[in-house]
Amino acid sequence: MDLNILVMAAGLGTRMKSQKAKVLHRLVGQPLINHVYHTALCLAPKRVVMVVGHQASDVEQVLKNFHSRLLKKAEQNNTPVAPEFVLQTEQKGTGHAVMMAKKLLARDSTPILVLSGDVPLITTNTLESLFTQHRTLNATATVLTTKVANPTGYGRIIRTQQGNFSHIVEHRDAGLKELEIDEINSGVYCFESQALFAALEKISPNNTQGEYYLTDVLSILRNQNDKVAIYQHKAPEEVLGINNRIELANAEHRMRMAKLESLMLDGVTIIDPNSTFIDLDVKIGIDTIIYPNTIIEGETIIGENCTINPGAHLINSHLANNVFIRDYSLIVDSFLADQTTVGPFAHLRMGAHLEAGATVGNFVEVKKSKLGQRTKAMHLSYLGDAIIGSSVNIGAGTITCNYDGKNKHTTVIEDNVKIGSDTMLVAPVRVGQGSMTGAGTVVTKDVPENSLAVGIPATIKKRLI
Predict the structure, then answer these.
(1) What is the pLDDT of residues 369-399, one digit of tens each?
(2) Are residues 304 and 187 in the same domain?
(3) Is residue 250 part of a domain?
(4) What is the mean pLDDT of residues 40-64?
(5) CB 391 within 8 A of CB 375
(6) Which residues are catalytic?
(7) pLDDT tens digits for range 183-211
(8) Do residues 411 and 333 share a domain?
(9) Last residue in a domain, options 181, 213, 245
């Protein structure tokens, strides 16, 4: 669209009662600012400029990382516009925030859509409708408004007798009659750029807050006979900002339920949506069943015909088809191939990789390790920094002792090996294919193929073939 977008994201958000900038609080797995940026990108604007202030470097890094992820997913002809940043070192109001972007956005006559970084529920359709009305009415400025049951804290829209825009009164500056008005300012606007920046030079901080209000620009434009239009939106829950943690929780519930409904309509069974938490970027295939009290976060991908039992927690992991996750298992940054089984009470992390048909049982931890096809570790084991072949059986209590106090070392277990219960494998060490260790063995040296190793330290007792 022939449009530039300016997002105000400089405030701390005092009502959040947090040391963290408001736009960095997370909603369905993403910081608030990422939601607004993504919606802005859907309009295909020329530029997206972010006004940052509190924790500016953190906000910038979050957006740059998000843009990088979007670039990887984008098609060649649909490259997302990178965010640009301007710094508001002192928070002197919304008008002052927009002033900071003058050098970037006053170069031409491209209209400017002004958004707030704490309005994550606003949709592309709403913004398109706002901009269409702005253009259709040939307005100099258009403000998005809505009606709410409790307008406390919001600026009130004052209309003329004819129902047109007159001015906006901030809640702190409003009189008793003005406080009764239920049509409020959403903080979303369209401006003709040259008129906007010319009017900004005329505003002053003559109010109870001592700030430069962007809303004063609308009054200035109207007083000089420029057309100021109103676009009243019928769904207040979409256009209102998040000011405290109650509103954040309400927005989380709204977006989470929308995500769950979308998954169910696409063929996923979710037993109890009220106790299931799935992030926005998660993808799940048809005929997968998600049981209650499950949390699935980040960019997790789950294939078809999987079963995720109660209490499972998956983060940034990839499950292929027909995977079975038993109760209360934690899986982070890991890959599970077809027909693998994990749990109950298992922990996979840091690039754990299970090949087809592998099984990890109860109270087994797998860290930065690969288990080959049909390999089983059923009970009470730690497998760290290990490369394990196919059709291996790991006995209960087995530990790959991967850390020598300074460095991590790799354990290699080749195909068709049987590791006896309570075996300690002191890395770096290799167990050759077809070999076996006895119960309680401490392996400190490589075990040749088809050998039986027993004892502390292990010795080779015999050849198995």
Answers:
(1) 999 999 999 999 999 999 999 999 999 999 9
(2) no
(3) no
(4) 96
(5) yes
(6) 379
(7) 999 999 999 999 999 999 999 988 778 88
(8) yes
(9) 245
CA distances from 323 to 64, 88, 312, 330 (A): 34, 50, 13, 14
Residues 222 and 289 in one domain: no
Domain membership of residue 39 (yes or no) is yes
Residue 363 lies in domain: 256-463
Q: Are 329 and 343 contacting, i.e. CB atoms less than 8 angstroms apart?
A: yes
pLDDT band at 80 (very low <50, low <70, confident <90, very high): very high
Q: Which residue has the tokens 């899986």?
A: 331
Evaluate whether residue 164 is within a structural domain.
Answer: yes
pLDDT tens, residue by residue, 274-325: 999 999 999 999 999 999 999 999 999 999 999 999 999 999 999 999 999 9
**Predicted structure pTM score:** 0.90
| pLDDT for the residue 178 | 92
CA dist., res. 435 & res. 447, Å (int): 8
What is the count of structural domains for the chain? 2
Residues 146 and 294 in one domain: no
The separation between CA 170 and the C-alpha centre of its own chain, rounded to angstroms, equals 33
Look at residue 76 and tell me whether its pLDDT is greater than 70: no
CATH code (residue 273):
2.160.10.10
